[in-house]
Design goal:
The complex is a heterodimer. Chain A is α/β, with parallel strands linked by helices. Chain A has helices at 6-15, 22-34, 48-59, 74-77, 83-101, 107-116, 131-137, 154-166, 197-201, 213-223, 229-244, 253-265, 273-278, 287-304, and strands at residues 38-41, 62-67, 79-81, 127-129, 142-147, 168-171, 175-178, 184-189, 204-207. In chain A, helix 1 (6-15) packs across helix 2 (22-34). The radius of gyration of chain A is 26 Å and the shape is elongated. The longest helix of chain B is centred in the middle third of the chain and has 30 residues, at 228-257. Chain B is of the alpha/beta class. Chain B is globular. Classes of the chains: A alpha/beta, B alpha/beta. Chains A and B meet through helix 2, helix 5, helix 9, strand 9 and helix 14 of A and helix 2, helix 3, helix 4, strand 2 and helix 11 of B.
């Protein structure tokens, strides 16, 4: 399953309820056509993660998600041994070892016999695949989302390089595993720290900013079908005005949507400064932020009219 | 097409981007997939491949505009520009007469659609290191080189005017007018390039301006205006703060203690009990060894705040295993040892009085950064958090913000604490505007509330 061209990407993503700008669609198309990973940057809540989900939905692919955090290591990202089974196996070996070496005349022969047995202890039998290995060994193409890669340690970033350039991973006990199908990889970053050049070189880069006014309108009307145009307009304008303020955390698209939903639930028809103040906790998550919005409430909404 | 892309890549590289060959190959193969007549798509491909972080994008857009819109290209897809031939002829004639001056030649090349030499020259000017000779520490080096290029630009303009009015090639009057305006336009472009100082676009910057009101009165008093009694109170609160910091750190250690089962070790141990895994061994992961490097300005302009900052530095060093503390005025001195051996108040007194730096010298951030680069650059790696405390008032010396840029690239996070109120940053000799683009986080830190805020939100 692939995209045909840039228009096709926009169309299919819109069907999956994700509206993109043309630039994003171009990059998604290129990534799917050339099999390169995408590195998505942007402020929190503009739909970086959602992009990967939407691609998976629109192509009907399975999404495998790896959430990065400080201290994430291979045993959580790539594979883990199934200890319980391994321990049981050692018990079995202990019981069966007599059968295997019975009848051996010399010590050397016994050792040979043991050596000729299958080495199951470190084999795929006891391996428990984690997201990365799942994505590599899947029979179908999958969308692999490596979320907030900037939160991971530099070691892990280095570890990703092999995966991203050759789509293979090395497991010391078993060997190198190559991808059966090249997954569609999306990495997201909040710019908590700068990514290394080596990682950037392997990816196509896209920056998603807060959407243009018109795009945000389309998103609101698409996601919240019941909303009137008038409310949507004043809502989007108010949010855009609030973003201009000097806030600790600026409201993002998902918060716009949450706010819109709560206004609908409250059966609000007109956005007034009072309504803004009473429903403020949907968009401001810091006390200092809400204080600032409260002070400016009249301006924020009046401007919108 | 490929040739044009390669030339553009060359421009990007002279402008300081690291574009690798594999990225060029990717880009060219991807261009085959999009509609080349759709400029937005074309631009998106170039941008996605060459400018791989938000910081680079704004500068990239300027380069792109310059290269594909303002300069004449041989690849124009429409019919050939009738003027372009004539421009070439004019430039040829001028080049014959040209003197050996490098910037002069570069400008003529720029006019004929080959901006490489000119861009290179700009880059040289912008990155120029001033020589370390005594008494010449001011910002004059780059300024005078700029002046020279400006003079050359004017020369070229005069030459073209003279050439067109002498008119040895017998152009019609209309053509002459068109040519003159075309040349002028491009000279203006060159001029704009010369005057612009590209700074990385840094909207990932976490700039904290507001703060929670933890303490009503004392919390809002600036460090500079405290009475003796308030100072005492302040100490107590800082003690509390330090304890909190330690709590946060020890919590990290606690959660890190729990390791996962180490099968290899468990089995090896099981041999003692005839293969029965009696003793379960865990793999212990050491907590991430976050390193901290702090630079603290202790010149007279930040004297009052410095005392509190040193307090925090001291406690940071107590909490973390790897902290390197420096103080500076005009040049650095490492005070890690003093902090390690002395008791807190002694240590601070000692730092403020006995360290081997010239306390009377005018503050020079550029010199400090140069010094750091020369001697301590290897302290920084991807696990280091660099905290700089200071007002960035550098007495009009060369700020050397490029060195700070290099430091940013090497460390994990760069946090700048400024003890001045924000309204007066960027005024006078403050270099905050040149340092700002390179910081990950920028805070005003002039009273206790802001300090508490910083410690609360400190992520290392």
């Amino acid at each position: 399953m692939k995209f045909k061209d840039v228009e096709d990407v926009q169309e299919k993503l819109q069907k999956a309820e994700y509206i993109t700008s043309r630039e994003i669609a171009t990059v998604v198309f290129l990534a799917s056509a050339t099999g390169k990973p995408i590195l998505v940057e942007g402020p929190a809540g503009v739909g970086k993660t959602e992009l990967a989900k939407a691609v998976a939905r629109s192509l009907g692919l399975q999404l495998i998600r790896l959430q990065c955090y400080e201290g994430l290591d291979e045993s959580k990202a790539l594979y883990e041994w199934e200890y319980a089974k391994q321990l049981l196996y050692t018990q079995m070996v202990r019981e069966k070892i007599g059968d295997v070496i019975s009848g051996a005349h010399t010590l050397a022969e016994a050792v040979d016999r043991i050596a000729s047995q299958e080495d199951a202890f470190f084999s795929e039998r006891f391996i428990q695949p984690r997201p990365l290995l799942q994505a590599i060994s899947s029979e179908e193409t999958v969308v692999l989302l490596i979320d907030e890669v900037d939160k991971s340690d530099p070691e892990f970033e280095a570890f990703l390089l092999e995966l991203l350039s050759d789509f293979q991973v090395s497991i010391p006990e078993i060997g190198t595993k190559k991808a059966k199908n090249i997954p569609f990889v999306v990495l997201t970053s909040n710019n908590y720290r700068d990514m290394s050049d080596a990682l950037k070189r392997r990816c196509i880069h896209i920056y998603i900013d807060y959407p243009e006014r018109e795009l945000e309108m389309r998103i609101v009307t698409l996601k919240i079908p019941g909303i009137t145009d008038r409310l949507a307009t004043s809502l989007v304008d108010a949010v855009r005005n609030i973003r201009e303020l000097d806030l600790k955390k600026r409201p993002c698209i998902s918060e716009t949507l949450d706010w819109a939903r709560s206004l609908l639930a409250l059966q609000v028809e007109d956005l007034t400064p009072d309504v803004l103040v009473t429903t403020l906790n949907m968009i401001c998550k810091y006390k200092t932020d809400s204080d600032m919005v409260k002070v400016n409430a009249a301006n924020l909404v009046n401007q919108a009219r | 097409m490929v040739k044009a892309i390669l030339r553009f890549v060359a421009c990007c590289r002279t402008a300081g981007y690291r574009v690798s060959t594999s990225e060029v190959l990717d880009c060219i193969s991807q261009l085959e997939l999009v509609d080349l007549l759709d400029e937005a798509g074309f631009r998106a491909v170039l941008r996605a491949n060459f400018a791989k972080s938000r910081r680079e994008q704004a500068h990239f857009d300027q380069l792109y505009h310059l290269f594909f819109h303002e300069l004449r290209q041989d690849i124009s897809l429409d019919e050939l520009d009738p003027l372009s031939d004539k421009m070439d002829k004019v430039l040829e004639k001028l080049q014959e007469k040209a003197n050996g001056n490098r910037s002069h030649r570069a400008i003529l090349d720029f006019l004929s659609g080959n901006p490489l030499a000119f861009l290179e020259m700009m880059r040289r000017i912008q990155t120029e290191q001033i020589d370390m000779g005594q008494g010449r520490k001011f910002n004059l080096g780059p300024l005078s080189s700029r002046l020279e290029v400006m003079v050359q630009l004017n020369d070229v303009r005069d030459e073209i005017d003279r050439f067109l009015s002498d008119n040895p090639l017998h152009f019609a009057a209309g053509t002459r007018r068109d040519l003159a305006s075309r040349f002028n336009e491009q000279l203006e472009n060159a001029f704009a390039l010369l005057l612009r100082e590209p700074r990385p676009h840094n909207d990932g910057l976490r700039q904290v301006k507001t703060h929670d009101q933890y303490l009503r009165q004392l919390g809002e008093r600036p460090f500079t205006s405290l009475t003796q009694k308030e100072l005492e109170q302040m100490r107590e609160i800082i003690d509390k703060l330090v304890r909190k910091l330690k709590d946060v750190v020890s919590r990290r250690y606690a959660t890190n203690k729990r390791g996962i089962l180490d099968v290899k070790k468990t089995l090896r141990r099981a041999d003692r009990y005839q293969g029965v895994p009696m003793e379960i061994r865990f793999r212990k992961r050491p907590p991430r060894k976050g390193k901290i490097v702090t630079l603290c300005d202790i010149s007279s302009s930040v004297w009052a705040a410095a005392r509190f900052m040193l307090n925090i530095l001291y406690s940071l060093q107590e909490c973390f295993t790897k902290v390197n503390s420096f103080v500076f005025v005009s040049g650095l001195a490492e005070v890690t040892d003093i902090f390690e051996t002395e008791e807190i108040n002694h240590a601070i007194e000692k730092v403020l009085k006995e360290v081997a730096i010239d306390y009377q010298a005018p503050t020079d951030y550029g010199e400090t950064l140069r010094h750091f680069k020369r001697d301590y650059m290897d302290l920084l790696n991807k696990k280091t958090t660099l905290i700089i405390i200071g007002d960035a008032r550098s007495n009009y010396f060369h700020p050397e913000d490029r060195i700070l840029g290099e430091m940013r690239e090497k460390c994990r996070r760069l946090i700048w604490l400024n003890p001045e109120p924000e309204q007066i940053w960027n005024t006078g000799d403050s270099e905050m505007f040149s340092y700002k683009p390179h910081c990950h986080e920028l805070r005003q830190c002039r009273n206790l509330n802001q300090l508490i805020d910083f410690v609360e939100e400190l992520i290392l």
